[in-house]
Specification:
Layout (H helix, E strand, L loop, with lengths): L2 H7 L1 E5 L8 E5 L6 E10 L3 E7 L2 E6 L2 E4 L6 H6 L13 E6 L3 E7 L4 E5 L3 E15 L2 H9 L4 E3 H23 L10 H16 L4 E12 L2 H13 L5 H18 L3 H33 L10 H16 L5 H12 L3
Parallel strand pairs: 1-3
Antiparallel strand pairs: 2-7, 2-11, 3-6, 4-5, 4-7, 8-10, 9-10, 10-12
Helix pairs in contact: 4-5, 7-8, 9-10
Length: 339
């Protein structure tokens, strides 16, 4: 290799980045400690930004397009280097490419169940899972507050670090919403929209925009799900008497599955209570049935004195002008016919 070729290899003339895996957020251009040639070509593709870092300080940021690296295109670096009169020699800076596309289907979940106050079940442990979408909003913040000077930042790293932020905020929003666990599924979209701005406040310091937040599933403790299934099958929550019997029957079933000890005594006691309740209910039903089957009592026989008193009362109404003579005569004829 000649001296000219050796010198030429020491200078970088083309700077660009072609993303290969789709999971990289920040990529450091591999310069191999070589200097950038004055007038080199920088290519920034769509959904990318390029950041120049000089001795740990961010200088110029380049948007999509082709840029010739001369003093006019590097105003901050030129100022920091005191290139007031211009220059034409190679220079050394670190170049980082930032992906500004939207990253989708990042996962979040509650590592431990959330204890939720529920209007129907009082306190319930709930687990939730979902996805969210993000994009880089401020590359300088992301670089200085999150990425640092590493060679690469993957979306997986962001996803793992943000998971500890998303889950507690979901728990707070769910508690504030005061939605019954039985109604969670029907409120996924509404809850997601409510949680998004709350979580966004935690993403802002890192220059990350949360573009979408979704709840995909929630799970309840096994015993709550089984109880709800039984309630649904019985379809009798609106009948408190039958519901009480249903709860007692469940207690008997549990006692039967755990014979001996206190459970058996409780099961027997509940069973006796249930039997008494059922017998009382049957007695009430029998009394109602007997009352319905009995013939109606015969009306009391009207006496002559009663009829004469009614005639006197009618006469008083006629004298007061409440009854007309015709109405009085009609009623009088009817009453005299009963004597």
């Amino acid at each position: 290799m000649g001296l000219f070729n050796f010198i030429k290899d020491e200078f970088i003339e083309v700077i660009d980045w072609v993303e290969s895996d789709g999971n990289t957020v920040i990529h450091k251009f591999p310069d191999n400690d070589a200097n950038i040639k004055y007038g080199a070509q920088l290519t920034v593709r769509e959904s990318q930004l390029a950041i120049f870092v000089d001795e740990g300080r961010i200088t110029d940021i380049y948007e999509p397009g082709m840029h010739k690296l001369i003093t006019d295109n590097m105003p901050l670096l030129t100022s920091l280097r005191s290139w007031k009169m211009g220059f034409n020699s190679p220079f050394k800076v670190d170049v980082y490419f930032v992906s500004t596309k939207q990253f989708t289907n990042l996962k979040w979940g509650t590592p431990n169940p959330i204890i939720l106050r529920d209007p129907e079940f009082k306190q319930v442990r709930v687990k939730a899972f979902g996805t969210y979408f993000i994009k880089v909003q401020d590359p300088k913040k992301l670089f200085t507050e999150f990425a640092g000077t590493g060679k690469q930042l993957s979306i997986k790293t962001i996803e793992e670090r943000m998971r500890d932020i998303v889950s507690p905020k979901f728990a707070e929003a769910l508690a504030e919403a005061k939605v019954s666990v039985l109604d969670l599924v029907g409120n996924y979209t509404e809850l997601g929209d409510k949680i998004l701005p709350i979580v966004q406040q935690e993403f802002d310091p890192f220059g990350i925009e949360l573009t979408k937040f979704q709840i995909t599933s929630t799970s309840l403790p096994k015993e709550v799900e089984e109880f709800y299934d039984k309630m649904t099958n019985m379809n009798m929550v609106d009948d408190m008497a039958r519901f009480t019997q249903f709860q007692s029957a469940n207690a008997i079933e549990d006692a039967a599955n755990n014979p001996g000890g206190a459970g058996e005594g409780i099961g027997v006691g509940i069973g006796m209570g249930l039997g008494n309740n059922m017998m009382n209910q049957m007695a009430q039903n029998q009394q109602q049935q007997t009352a319905q089957n009995q013939p109606a009592a015969a009306p009391q026989q009207e006496t002559k004195a009663d009829i004469m008193q009614t005639l006197k009362d009618l006469g008083g109404l006629k004298e007061a002008g409440i009854l007309t003579q015709k109405e009085f005569d009609t009623k009088k004829k009817e009453l005299l016919a009963r004597l």
